[in-house]
C-alpha cells in the first residue's frame, strides 16, 4: 500500500531553505557518509513524486537539462505556466492535494509517494490527514530564519518515532509516522 512520505533535510532550527531559497548551507554537506545509501534506499520505494512549483522552478534553474527523476512520474502543484523537459513524465496541477491523492497512488503502483517539497505543500498533505511519514535529516547548521520545515497553523498530535540514526558529519536521520490527522488550526 502506498504511503505519502515527506523526505527532507532541515537545519537544527527547522528550516529547509533560506528566505531566498538558498540551499548553499545544505549543499556543503553533499557526499556525507551514509547520505547516498539513505537516499538510494528511500528512492527504491518511491513510485511517484509530488512537488511544489517553487521546488520545480529551483530544480529547473539549478539543474538545467538534468531532470533528476527521469523514470518516476511527477506531479507539480503550481499556479504558473511551466514546460516540462522533453522525455519526462511531469503533470502540472492546481487545486487541493485531496483531489489528486488517488492519481498519485495509482501512478505509484503500490510504491510510495514522495512529497519533495516544499514545506507549504507538505503542510497541505498533513492538514488533510494524508501525510503518513516524515523522514527528516537534521543538518547541523542554524539558519535563524527561512522556509519552515512544516508550516502548520497548530500543533500536531504526537508523532511516533520509528527509527533514528546518526550519519556522517553530525547529521541525524529521524523517521516519524503521523499517528493521527493534524487537527485543523
TrEMBL record:
Provide an example Pfam family for this protein: RibD_C
Specify the protein name: Deaminase
Matching PANTHER family:
2,5-DIAMINO-6-RIBOSYLAMINO-4(3H)-PYRIMIDINONE 5'-PHOSPHATE REDUCTASE, DIHYDROFOLATE REDUCTASE FAMILY PROTEIN (AFU_ORTHOLOGUE AFUA_8G06820)
- Gene Ontology biological-process entries: riboflavin biosynthetic process
Q: What InterPro entries does this protein map onto?
A: DHFR-like_dom_sf (IPR024072), RibDG_C (IPR002734), Riboflavin_Biosynth_HTPR (IPR050765)
Where does the record place the Bacterial bifunctional deaminase-reductase C-terminal domain?
4-172
Q: Which Gene3D superfamilies match?
A: Dihydrofolate Reductase, subunit A
- GO molecular function ontology, one term from the record: 5-amino-6-(5-phosphoribosylamino)uracil reductase activity
Organism of provenance: Pseudarthrobacter sulfonivorans
